[in-house]
Amino acid sequence: MRYALVDCNTFYASCEKVFRPDLRHKPVIVLSNNDGCVVAMSREAKALGIPRGIPLFKVEPLIRKHNIEVFSSNYTLYHDLSKRVMDILRTFAAELEIYSIDEAFLVLKGEDRDDFAEQIRGTVMTWTGIPVSVGIGPTKTLAKAANKIAKDNPQGYYDFSSENSREFLTKLDIGDIWGIGRQYKAFLNRKGIFTALQLTEQSDSWIKKNLTMVGLRTKWELEGRPSIDMEMAPPPKKGILSSKSFSYPVTDFIDLREAAADYGTTASGKLRRQGSVCRYVNISVSTNNFRKTDRQYSNAATIELAVPSSYPPDIICAAQKGLERIYRKGYKYKKITVYLTGIEEEQRGQLDLFLKEDPRKYQVMKSIDKINKKYGRNTLNCMSKRDTSRWQMKREKLSPLYTTNWKDLPLIPL
DNA sequence: TCTGGGGTCCTAGGACCC
DNA sequence: TCTGGGGTCCTAGGACCC
Q1: Closest residue to B11 (CA, C1′)
Q2: What is the spatial distance between Cα A50 and Cα A411, in angstroms, rounded to a whole number?
Q3: CB < 7 A to strand B: residues 212-251, chain A
Q4: Does A385 score more than 70 pLDDT?
């Protein structure tokens, strides 16, 4: 069996370039929510030495100097282009696992030709304008490692089986292995382990003791024994959260209440889309940890619903009840999170209960979902809002919704 | 002035039970 | 002086991923 990992190159930055051919060879960076940090960079921007995750204000001089193009995150655009890429990949694979917005594992079809990787790269580029890299190997972990090499390979792909595996594992740094993060890398380095090959030379029991079962599976995968399953259909989420940082410090309880309602609405929408209900609503608030001179406070509360629900007012009421418990006057709040847990499938029995309680609830919910799907999020909302500018997200450099909004369709001058 | 959001899995340790 | 063993359940926190 052969696995392939297909990964979109500098995905967010590439999405921004698709409809902006003038930016083709220019450095482009994409920011996190609130235009806070740099989360994605084009190849040209990486070459200028900008570290991922750095706050925007720290690289302002560099941006001016090199005329770097800056974008707020346009998730609507990225998700739409991601879906198009995945639809193409599906036609190449016996099995497809969408691993993240810009990555997918494929189990290759038996009859695959040698130019499989080139076919994929060519098709995705022609049909979407997104460049991808392809790594191929006998396990998911090795395909992932091969992909890393493919990124620096001018051909854009790399096949693990094309090389001596001992040599490959010797060159593979321990920190570049999928599943080995910063902490484990530091720990292993202290033990004198620097390469993938050295990791595979440790005993199973030692690895399990120090890196848990997850680490042991990684070892087996490096040895060429598939130990991590493909997940073709994403399992239902066990926790769903909606959380945002405020662009300005929030002190007023009313503002926090509105934010709780807003994120409660978002989270309950995700819940309904996966056909689930939740039993617990957890809400947490915190001040800005980076401002050492501010008085710090953070707290959380969990509310159990009388009946598991996905009905927005139920979620919102619980979130606000929790908020009342943990809110303390006099702090500058930076972040609020609504986290839904105790997730169960929406079942007949529960639905009956729900309907018995008030059948109109169900109708209202369905109608709201339908209207918002047709006319856009937030067309109908549960709470009337005051001026929300104080806490809403900052997105000053947003690109158009080229592929999902008629008004934003790109025009070609003739 | 300005530091993201959304997930999963695993383990240790405490509470509680007989 | 001497203070068990085995089990379950829950939560917090730490590791990882993108």
Answers
A1: A212
A2: 33
A3: 212-214, 235, 237-245, 249
A4: no
Q: Which residue is nearest to nucleotide C16 (CA to C1')?
A: A179
Quick: pLDDT tens for A243-285. 888 888 889 898 899 888 888 888 888 888 888 888 889 888 8
Nucleotides of strand C under 7 angstroms from a protein beta carbon? 14-18
Give the 3-state secondary structure of residue A178: coil
pLDDT for A17: 96
Q: Please compute the mean of the pLDDT values over residues A297-310 and round it to a whole number.
A: 85
More confident position, A311 or A382 = A311
A69 classed as catalytic: no
Tokens 């079962």 correspond to A213
Strands A69-71 and A28-31, by their bridges, are parallel
CA distance A52 to A18: 22
Catalytic residue among A16, A69, A103, A258: A103
In this prediction, residue A384 carries a pLDDT of: 47
Reduced to 3 states, what is the DSSP secondary structure of residue A402?
coil
Neighbours of A102 (CB within 10 A): 23
Read off the amino acid at residue A90: R
Quote the distance between the C-alpha of residue A148 and its chain's center: 19
Instruction: Determine the distance between A375 (CA) and C10 (C1') in angstroms.
Output: 44
